[in-house]
Amino acid sequence: EAGVTQFPSHSVIEKGQTVTLRCDPISGHDNLYWYRRVMGKEIKFLLHFVKESKQDESGMPNNRFLAERTGGTYSTLKVQPAELEDSGVYFCASSQFPGTGELFFGEGSRLTVL
Amino acid sequence: AQKVTQAQTEISVVEKEDVTLDCVYETRDTTYYLFWYKQPPSGELVFLIRRNSFDEQNEISGRYSWNFQKSTSSFNFTITASQVVDSAVYFCALGSSNRDDKIIFGKGTRLHILP
Questions:
Q1: Contact list, B47 vs chain A (CB under 8 Å)
Q2: What does each C-alpha distance from B82 to B18, B108, B111, B115 come to in angstroms?
Q3: pLDDT tens across A75-104, in order?
Q4: Fewer C-beta neighbours within 10 Å, C or N terminus of chain A?
C-alpha cells in the first residue's frame, strides 16, 4: 500500500513567485493535515481537511497560503506570493480514524525562497 | 492547553555512548497519545513510536527505549550505544483522542553523534 506522497520533494523559488505543493494521502483516508517546520523551529499545524472540507485552518499563517482538496482526494497548498520566511519543510499527513493517533506523514516538501 | 517541552535544544555525544532525550507534556485530556519522530538531515519525518496514555509500560525496540511516566508527565527517549546514523532532530509530540489527529510538536532536540 502506498504511503502519503508529496511533490515536489524540493522547490527553490524567488521571493514573490508562486509555488504549489501537492499531497496524495493514503487511499481511503478522509483526514488530511498540513504541517510545516520553518528553519530551526518546531513543526506547526497548518490545517486539517475532512474529505474536501476544511475542518480546522487555524494554523494557516496568512492569506498568502491557500489549501484545497477538491474531490476529497489529493490536496494542494499554494503559496502566493512567497516570502523568505516561508522557507521550510511542509509535511502532509493523513489518517483514517481520527483520535486514534494513527497519523501517517509524507516525506515532506522542502521549500526554499531566495 | 496542550504543550510539549523539549528542554534540550542540542546534544552532542560520542559514538557508543547512551543518550536520553527529555520530553515533558501538558494536557487536560484524560486520553491522549504521545509520539516520537526523527527528522534526519534528509528532512523527512520518521515515525518512531506512539504511546497511548493508558499504557504506561516502558518499551524497548532494539537500541531505542522509551520511559513513560504519567506522574511526572514525561515521555523520555533513550538511545543505547549511539551510532553516527542516529544524528538527527528528534521531536516529541502530543495528540488527543478527544479530537482529531491534530498533534502538537515540541521544538525538537538536535542530536549529534560524534565518531
A1: 104-105
A2: 6, 18, 10, 10
A3: 999 999 999 999 999 999 998 887 777 788
A4: N
